Amino acid sequence: MDQFKPSRKYLPLVLCGPSGAGKSTFTEHIMSQASPFKEFFAFSVSSTTRQPRPGEKDGVHYHFNTREQFEEEVAKGNFLEHNEVHGNFYGTHKDAVRDIIKQGKICILDIDVKGALDISKQTVKEFKCNFAFIQTPTIDDLRARLEARGTETEETLAKRVSAADKEMKMAAECGLFAKFLINDEKKRFLDEAVAYLTGELYNLKPSHQ
Ligand SMILES: Nc1ncnc2c1ncn2[C@@H]1O[C@H](COP(=O)(O)OP(=O)(O)OP(=O)(O)O)[C@@H](O)[C@H]1O
């Protein structure tokens, strides 16, 4: 029987970590068909002003906005956090998070440390969050993972590795993260991450398949 119990008590989870650390690996794992915890979680859909890539659907991969729409929403204070990257805006609209909270699910936000710090400064109780950071044991491990993923050119790889260094220093110093999860061996990491979230952090009871 399905034991998923929607609840308003679950604070959203802000998941940070350098590119290649394993954020997608973890979220795909906990939300996979085989996961007994999949119904507790939903992924927040970010907004962006960049053009959709082939196959990307509005409202699924991103909420695609014009620059004017995006700026108007920022002016109204409707973004929890936003940032400009390579000339495009990216951000988390409050409604994207609200929709998931209303469903009684744990909203997962995959954002950078700067965005996480912006969210943590929100004084509204509605958007109080938990913060966790995922990293590899060393920068060399991170470089190797990104190389193996095959998504990077030499140039983007170098950018990501140098950004990772800064991101990890900022994360260690800012005092925001209650938990640092080290992605060394995949299974061990996933087991630890699931145990932490479903135990200590949210106290979830697995649904039976
Ligand atoms: N423990 C591990 N050992 C080896 N490879 C791993 C491990 N964890 C994840 N990977 C692989 O490393 C690559 C990077 O992981 P992933 O895509 O989950 O990172 P990410 O943090 O989501 O990155 P981005 O922010 O760029 O989306 C992927 O190809 C993934 O399959």
Q: Summarize the biggest pleated sheet.
A: 5 strands, parallel
For this structure, what is the CATH class?
Alpha Beta
**Named CATH topology:** Rossmann fold
The ligands bound in this entry are: adenosine-5'-triphosphate
What spatial form do the alpha-carbon principal axes imply? globular
State the CATH architecture.
Answer: 3-Layer(aba) Sandwich
H-E order: EHEEEHEEHEHEHHEH
The amount of helix comes to: 25-40%
Number of strands: 9
The CATH superfamily is identified as P-loop containing nucleotide triphosphate hydrolases
Strand order of the largest sheet: 2-7-1-8-9
Number of helices: 7
Q: What portion of the residues fall into strands of 2 or more residues? A: 15-25%
Pfam family, one: Guanylate_kin
Organism: Halteria grandinella
Keywords: ATP-binding, Kinase, Nucleotide-binding, Transferase
EC number: 2.7.4.8
